[in-house]
TrEMBL record:
Protein keywords: Coiled coil, Pyridoxal phosphate, Transferase
MF annotations from Gene Ontology: transferase activity
Residue ranges of coiled coil: 246-273
UniProt xrefs under Gene3D superfamilies: Aspartate Aminotransferase, domain 1 (3.90.1150.10), Type I PLP-dependent aspartate aminotransferase-like (Major domain) (3.40.640.10)
Organism: Nocardioides bigeumensis
Region (Disordered): 1-34
Name of protein: PLP-dependent transferase
Comp. bias regions, Polar residues: 1-19
Family note: Belongs to the trans-sulfuration enzymes family.
Keyword Aminoacyl-tRNA synthetase carried by entry: no
Cofactor(s) this protein requires: pyridoxal 5'-phosphate
Organism lineage string: Bacteria, Bacillati, Actinomycetota, Actinomycetes, Propionibacteriales
Length: 360
């Protein structure tokens, strides 16, 4: 029946949208949650046709994230699959401007494409707006992270977007760290938003998923065609888990951000911490201690904090980023990226403090 009421998202707050978007229609005996549809093949004659083209479970997640970001969403098998799909649209030999500090997977893809002559990559300090604006000349694409990973630098998204558009370039923002609750790049004129939904959106360290959101219908259709052709589609269970996680995004972000802000103040007062990097919002904090050995020791002497490379889950995780050879050489050897979870903040601090106190 087409006249049954459905969950409305227009004009609702982000918190309400996170709970209500992507639900089945409100009718007697309808499930509150979109079921997991395990199907590779559909009966012909409808809109789905084949499992590589669409799935009702993906669609529910896409509807919800699209409503939060203010655009149309496409889900992908991973954040890197989403990144790769966007970069695949860059013309042969065209110029891409990107942060010199960013998710190493994105930078690695740019380096690989450049080594094969597919494009030209210019890495810049995106916190230097004048430098980014100057770099936009002749660019086909400007890639922004704000905050950057793991340096946590901020970019003037609106100013850079205006300059990029004046130069004829598209603008992409990786919004993984901020989430649509803290920043909506499409409202600032950006063309495409990319997410590693594995992180804060899914939020429970149990699903690998990516997403792209845009308001440009033509661009959406081109990106979907690329997903269909390449087959970078999400798993049905992963999409369902991510949607379930999205329902509590506002609660998790609120708690994790409050924890992060409290920890920042305490970390700044500890004798072993040389520098604290925090953009003022979100749940990711980077601290610098004296050297790689101390940073490694810090990550090995906690019980509540977990030494792990991913982030954005309900649990607090951290790692020394330069343990990865692909990390930018301009990141200090002693930098530890911390993803603050939703545990009790006093427990988190007690665990950190005892570990910091043990450093030589």
């Amino acid at each position: 029946m087409t006249d049954e009421p459905t969950a409305q998202t227009t004009g609702l707050s982000p918190a309400t949208t996170a709970v209500t978007a992507g639900r089945p229609e409100h009718r007697p005996d309808a499930p509150l949650n979109t079921p997991i549809t395990m199907a590779s093949t559909y009966v012909a004659g409808g809109d789905l046709e084949y499992g590589r083209y669409a799935n009702p479970t993906w669609t529910a997640f896409e509807d919800a994230l699209g409503a939060l970001e203010g655009g149309r969403c496409l889900a992908f098998s991973s954040g890197l699959a989403a990144v790769s799909t966007v970069l695949d649209l860059v013309g042969q030999g065209a110029k891409v401007v990107a942060p010199h500090h960013a998710y190493h997977g994105s930078i690695a893809q740019l380096a690989d494409l450049e080594s094969r002559g597919r494009l030209s990559a210019l890495l810049v300090d995106t916190s230097d707006t004048d430098a980014v604006v100057a770099a936009c000349d002749d660019a086909a694409l400007v890639w922004i992270e704000s905050p950057t990973n793991p340096a946590l630098e901020l970019a003037d998204i609106a100013a850079i977007t205006e300059a990029a558009h004046d130069a004829g370039a598209y603008v992409v923002v990786d919004n993984t760290f901020a989430t649509p609750l803290l920043q909506r790049p499409l409202d600032l004129g950006v063309d495409v938003v990319v997410h590693s939904a594995t992180k804060f959106l899914a939020g429970h360290s149990d699903a690998v998923l990516g997403a792209i959101v845009t308001r440009d219908d033509q661009l959406h259709d081109v990106l979907k065609q690329r997903r269909d052709m390449v087959g970078a589609i999400p798993g049905t269970l992963e999409a369902w888990l991510a949607l379930r996680g999205l329902r509590t995004l506002h609660l998790r972000v609120e708690r994790a951000q409050a924890n992060a802000q409290a920890l920042v103040e305490r970390l700044r007062g500890h004798r072993q911490v040389q520098e604290v990097r925090y953009p003022g919002f979100g749940a990711v904090v980077s601290v610098v201690v004296d050297g790689a050995d101390r940073a490694d020791l810090l990550t090995r002497t906690t019980s509540t904090w977990v030494h792990a490379t991913s982030l954005g889950g309900v649990e607090s995780t951290f790692e020394r980023r330069r343990r990865w050879r692909t990390e930018a050489a301009t990141i200090p050897e002693g930098l530890v990226r911390m993803s603050v979870g939703i545990e009790d903040v006093d427990d988190l601090w007690a665990d950190l403090e005892q570990a910091l106190d043990k450093l030589p």
